């Protein structure tokens, strides 16, 4: 009989250390996030296709560079002049791809399931932005990177997609193969926030 393989979270090994950090470091909570469906959409915008796409998601398409907006069960993130990432917590990636592909294909657009391409990490607390500033060249002050901002950038020598969910609430998306490296980087960078001794 064949053995059944069950998927594991890319940060399963680091989850206990991140939980310990969150207990010990005042003003910092770091949490691996559950997997979400993610679909990359290419579509000419503005135009009727963008309007139809936005209506299907229950929100206007973000056309301002480096921004994101809420959808009914996830986020719609601007990646480029004709590219967006759609995340959804309550859908399967292949189903979301089929649904969005049906809409955007009528306007010469494309939708591709990229759910396996990113792992989410959430950083909350008064020190979240300070911690990320140790390894990111962006100005992460809330006045320069306010809620609703998004950026494709490097953090500790790995590529991430960074979202500002709130003043003290940030989400990172990183490739699963680099998730462990990023967790180690966060644990190392946060050492100064742990109590001495």
UniProtKB/TrEMBL annotation:
InterPro entries: SoxG (IPR007375), TrmE/GcvT-like (IPR027266). It comes from the Bacteria. Pfam families: SoxG. Gene3D superfamilies: Heterotetrameric sarcosine oxidase, Probable tRNA modification gtpase trme, domain 1. SUPFAM superfamilies: Folate-binding domain (SSF103025). Signal peptide: none annotated. Transmembrane segments: none annotated. This is Sarcosine oxidase subunit gamma.
């Amino acid at each position: 009989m064949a053995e059944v393989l069950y998927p594991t979270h890319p940060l399963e090994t680091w989850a206990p250390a991140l939980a310990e950090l969150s207990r010990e470091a005042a003003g910092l909570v770091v949490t691996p996030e559950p997997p979400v469906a993610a679909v990359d959409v290419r579509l000419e915008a503005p135009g009727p296709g963008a309007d139809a796409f936005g209506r299907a998601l229950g929100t206007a398409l973000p056309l301002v560079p480096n921004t994101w907006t809420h959808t009914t069960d996830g986020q719609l993130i601007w990646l480029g002049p004709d590219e967006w990432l759609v995340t959804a917590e309550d859908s399967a990636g292949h189903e979301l791809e089929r649904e969005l592909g049906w809409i955007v294909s009528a306007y010469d657009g494309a939708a591709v399931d990229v759910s396996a391409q990113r792992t989410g990490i959430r950083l909350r607390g008064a020190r979240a932005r300070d911690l990320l500033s140790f390894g990111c060249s962006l100005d992460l002050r809330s006045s320069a990177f306010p809620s609703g901002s998004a950026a494709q950038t490097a953090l500790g020598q790995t590529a991430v997609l960074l979202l500002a969910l709130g003043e003290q609430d940030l989400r990172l998306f990183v490739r699963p193969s680099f998730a462990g490296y990023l967790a180690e980087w966060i644990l190392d960078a946060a050492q100064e926030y742990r109590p001495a001794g």
